[in-house]
Write a structure and sequence with these properties.
Elements: H1 2-10, H2 21-27, E1 33-35, E2 43-45, H3 68-74, H4 101-109, H5 112-119, H6 125-132, H7 142-157, H8 166-190, E3 194-195, E4 198-199, H9 201-205, H10 207-228, H11 231-251, H12 258-286, H13 292-319, H14 322-325, H15 331-334, H16 340-348, H17 351-357, H18 365-375, H19 378-397, H20 404-418
Antiparallel strand pairs: 1-2, 3-4
Helix pairs in contact: 1-19, 4-7, 5-8, 7-8, 7-12, 7-20, 8-10, 8-12, 10-11, 11-12, 12-13, 13-19, 16-18, 16-19, 19-20
Subcellular location: Mitochondrion
Pfam families: polyprenyl_synt (PF00348)
InterPro entries: Isoprenoid_synthase_dom_sf, Polyprenyl_synt, Polyprenyl_synt_CS
């Protein structure tokens, strides 16, 4: 299945060479696909350690293609990127009209933040104020929205009523709590002073209290998770917290070798962003279906959408204004982080290599790196890679039985690619 999808993606470009960096990334550490007879007649994907950051593929690539530098030296062609309207996402499913995900999930998310505040109830007023600070109802709630849509789609797929099970609703809430706790901790680590258009918790109350607030939110999420009463679900969502910590440690480091550097970036992106979505989707599938292949579909959709979401986020750091983003622009460069646009730009401007290794710490590094990225096709390449991950997410979710929620999850991939904040 991955082969035809790859050929469709290739139609986006009129001058794409087979050994471009983007194609190499797509196939890097590709996983094998084995087919098994099942009630659904679907392929079964094996999850290999180290493949967290790469889309699934059945294509076996000549090892020579993994030499990034020589491939790029031989081929210097430019990709012609499509507008969203020319995206081939719609060719992967037959539904004429895709449902709006926010509209479908609205009923399930109406009381989300009130329920979270109930979980965080404490008598100490200051701690309550800290914990409630980001749960003000102004967040995008992307993660719980994906979770409730996935849960309903899986319930219908499994010949049940589409309504959420209590445990599935709890997982949607827990996903938002874990995400918010990670934001609180990230802001302390990064020394950020602005989040979602307002001052960060560490800026208002100080770093020590911010850390304690993040810990308290995590502890409340853990208690809510334990009440679900499913050991497998507990194990799956506990993996998210481990991945968040490992991803943060990965972000503190860098790689000298270009091959290792991009693999490092994608794996870090999975652990810090996509793991929560992937494992939350898997968790709601476990509560309604015993088929491991269904669990894998849910996981793979969440993983690919999550990585695409972060790739677009990395692009917006270069293309959106600070006021629009709700946080400073060029924030990643100022933190010493080389994201997708920078790594792609490094292929055209080797001067960036030294800046990446010293984490843009010398005077003028941030401004020069910013200009190099804008002069390169790094932004376009990163957008193109995000589209490829969304293609894989669509391929996975299209294996489920048709339903309005399944269609909304397909529609969501388009919204991920076109968001501007």
């Amino acid at each position: 299945m991955a082969g035809p999808m790859w050929r469709q993606c290739r139609r986006w470009s009129t001058n794409c060479t087979s050994a471009s960096l983007l194609e190499t990334l797509w196939h890097f550490n590709c996983r094998s696909v084995s087919f098994s007879a099942s009630s659904l007649g679907r392929p079964s994907w094996s999850s290999r350690p180290g493949n967290e950051g790469q889309p699934s593929s059945s294509t076996q690539i000549n090892p020579k293609i993994l030499n990034f530098t020589s491939s790029l030296n031989r081929h210097k062609s430019r990709l012609l990127y499509p507008t969203l309207q020319s995206c081939c996402c719609r060719t992967l499913h037959s539904d004429a009209k895709l449902k709006d995900p926010f509209t479908l999930a609205q009923k399930d998310l109406t009381s989300l933040y009130d329920d979270i505040k109930k979980e965080l109830f404490v008598s100490k007023e200051e701690l309550k104020s800290l914990c409630d600070y980001y749960f003000d109802g102004k967040g995008k709630a992307i993660r719980p929205m994906i979770v409730v849509l996935m849960a309903r789609a899986l319930n219908i797929h499994s010949n049940r009523a589409g309504d959420l099970l209590p445990g599935q609703r709890a997982i949607a809430m827990i996903s938002e709590m874990i995400h918010t706790a990670s934001l609180v901790h990230d802001d302390v680590i990064d020394g950020s002073d602005k989040r979602r258009g307002k001052r960060t918790i560490n800026e208002v109350w100080g770093e020590r209290k911010a850390i304690l607030a993040g810990d308290f939110i995590l502890s409340a999420a853990s208690m809510a998770l334990a009440r679900i009463g499913n050991n497998t679900v507990v194990k799956v969502l506990s993996q998210v917290i481990e991945d968040l910590v490992r991803g943060e440690f990965m972000q503190l480091g860098s790689k000298e070798n270009e091959n290792e550097r991009f693999k490092h970036y994608l794996e870090k992106t999975f652990k810090k962003t996509a793991s929560l979505i992937a494992n939350s989707c898997k968790a709601v599938s476990i509560l309604v279906n015993s088929d491991p292949e269904v669990h894998e579909i849910a996981y793979q959709y969440g993983k690919n959408v999550g990585i695409a979401f972060q790739l677009v986020d990395d692009v917006l750091d270069f293309t959106s204004g600070a006021n629009h983003l709700g946080k400073p622009s060029a924030a990643d460069l100022k933190l010493g982080l080389a994201t997708g646009p920078v790594l792609f730009a490094c292929q055209q401007f080797p001067e960036l290599h030294a800046m990446i290794m010293r984490r843009f710490s010398s005077n003028g590094d941030v401004d020069r790196a910013w200009q190099y990225v804008l002069q390169s096709d790094g932004v376009q390449q990163t957008n193109f890679l995000a589209q490829r991950y969304c293609q894989e997410a669509i391929r996975q979710i299209s294996m489920l039985r048709p339903s309005p929620e399944r269609d909304a999850l397909i529609r969501l991939t388009e919204m991920v690619l076109t968001r501007d904040k």
